Amino acid sequence: MKRLNLPKEKTFIGPALIWKRIAAFFIDMAVINLVILFPFRSLFRDIMPKDYNFSEAYKILSSSADYTGFLTSVSLVMSILVLLYFWMLERKMGQTIGKMLMRIYVVSSNKDLKAWQLLARNLVFLPVFPFILLWIVDPLFMFFAKTNQRLSEILSRTRVVEVYSLSND
Amino acid sequence: MKPAQGPSFRWGYAIFVLLLLSILGFMAVGVISLFAGIDVESLSGNVALIPIEGVITGSEDSEFIFESVTASPDTIELIEKADKNPSIKAIILEINSPGGSAVASEEIANAVKKTNKTTVAWIREIGTSGAYWIASASDHIVANRVSVTGSIGVIASYLEFPGLLERYNITYQRLVAGKYKDIGSPYKEMTQEERELFQQSLDEIRDYFVGEVAKNRNMGKKEVDKMANGLFYLGSQAKELGLVDEIGGKDEVIGYIEKKEGIKAEIVEYKKEKSLFEVLSRIISRQSFFVGKGIGNSLFEKRDASTLSITT
After folding, report:
1. Is residue A162 part of a domain?
2. What is the CATH number of the domain that holds B62?
3. DSSP secondary structure, chain B, as one string
4. Which carries the bigger pLDDT value, residue A116 or residue B281?
5. ipTM score of the complex?
6. Is B3 within 8 Å of A49 when comparing Cβ atoms?
7. What is the tally of structural domains in chain A?
8. A102 contacts in B (CB within 8 Å)?
9. Annotated active-site positions of B, please?
10. Residues of chain A falling short of pLDDT 70
């Protein structure tokens, strides 16, 4: 009997598991915090209130228009750097460091990934209205959507996927 | 579709992006620090230290950009900021000033009196005249044994040039609408009547100054009046006269605050930081001013010591 030369492994692409997405996100945040946002630490160390609870610190910071303006601009610069991290890596490779480690990646729902799609899916990082509204809604959406997509992923027509394999052995 | 690049390329690119963005981060922090002009005083302290240094003026527009002056609007802003900050329990005024504008001194003294916080004046090398006026508005004054203080009085001075003009056959043409319009002009001799008018104004300012010091220090006006002859006193003498409360330095200042407020004092300096942008724009605006005015004219202005000024 002639033996069929079938591939040993059968693969297909499906939505990435939520726990992998969450793990990838925390890895990315750790990397961003350690490397990209490192220079901002000394800046914050000098100006942020210490030894106060949240409400006291909030009261102190909001008492000065200078501080609130300064903190808003610094947060904006930091979020732009975060946005650039996701945009640059996903644009070139479809993966950030966290996604590389979790073996998941970003694809377009229709054809090739466009720059605007990657920008749109990551705008949630900007701490300005209306994106700030997405901070809670966006990740929550992932738990209820069949495709495990965030709201901004649906809007930007992108998906985070992983390769599943079925062994024939 | 699965990423096509090999793992070495992907890791290499990821490291490149991280490096690039961290460099951008460093640059952004540098630019923000330079141009933001934010007061970087830490909010971790509970005692604000505000310097009163150099000549006290009504504005920061001094002749020299890096000269140490105390501009009343800036100092008042710092005092108000410290007053609004709930974590600040006391304010130290670190005084090292010979005084200056009577108006500016009174403005700062009023701001000190308005605060709800404990205020302590710490006189270092010198705290005379207008600077003492400010110190007197605080709750407690600490001075070194050999600090120079007091000098309660008012001075107005100018140079008179009529003799010089006469020598060079230059005539001062007096065209005034209003009898006293050119009072204090350096080009003519002051008349006896003008001198008396001037003296009267100076006496009034001095009288007000004495009254304020007496009120601030809970002393009799006559008592202060006796000391207000323009003479300066060493810290030890000032203590005997009741012009200062305690002889000492920083330790004594902290000790007083800790005892009064029942806190462990953590001092934080409140200082008006000038951003690079402010310094540059000030240089440019002054240059533009002198170009517009004419260099000769501006040089004349600088030498114009004859301009009458009243200072405490």
Report:
1. yes
2. 3.90.226.10
3. ----S-HHHHHHHHHHHHHHHHHHHHHHHHHHHHHH------TT-SEEEEEEESEEESSS--SSTT--EEEHHHHHHHHHHHHH-TT--EEEEEEEE--BBHHHHHHHHHHHHH-SSEEEEEEEEEEETHHHHHHHTSSEEEE-TT-EEE----EEE----HHHHHHTT-------SSTTTTTT-TTSPPPHHHHHHHHHHHHHHHHHHHHHHHHHHT--HHHHHHH-SS-EEEHHHHHHHTS-SEE--HHHHHHHHHHHHTS---EEE---PPPHHHHHHHHHHHHHHHHHH-HHHHHHHHH-TTS-EEE-
4. A116
5. 0.82
6. no
7. 1
8. none
9. 129, 181
10. 1-9, 45-54, 56-66, 167-169
How sure is the predictor about B216, in pLDDT bands with cuts at 50, 70 and 90? very high
**Radius of gyration, CA atoms only, chain A:** 21
- Alpha-carbon dihedral of residues A14, A15, A17, A18, nearest 10 degrees? 180
In terms of residue numbers, what domain contains B228? 40-311
Across the interface, whether the CB atoms of A64 and B22 are under 8 A apart is answered: no
Residues of B in contact with A98 (CB under 8 A): none
* A3: in domain: no
Which structural domain range is residue A62 located in? 9-167
Tokens of B10: 């992907």
Query: Does residue A59 sit within a domain?
Result: yes
Task: Let me know if residue B29 belongs to a domain.
Answer: no
**pLDDT, tens digit (0-9, with 9 covering 90-100), for B137-147:** 999 999 999 99
Closest CA in chain B for residue A82: B21
Residue A107 lies in a domain: yes
Residue B33 counted as domain residue: no
Number of domains making up chain B:
1
Query: Is residue B11 included in any domain, yes or no?
Result: no
Is A35 in contact with B43 (Cβ distance < 8 A)?
A: no
Find out whether B153 and B233 touch, Cβ atoms under 8 Å. no
Is A36–B29 a contact, with Cβ atoms under 8 angstroms apart? no
Is it the case that residue B60 has pLDDT exceeding 60? yes
The interface residues of chain A toward chain B in range 20-79, judged by CB-CB distance below 8 A, are 31, 35-40, 42-43, 46-52, 56, 59-61, 63-64, 66-67, 70, 73-74, 77-78
Q: Minimal Cα distance from A112: which residue of B? A: B1
**Nearest-CA distance from B106 to chain A in Å?**
26
Structural domain contains residue B23: no
User: Which tens digit of pLDDT belongs to each residue from B128-183?
Assistant: 999 999 999 999 999 999 999 988 888 877 788 888 888 888 888 888 888 888 88
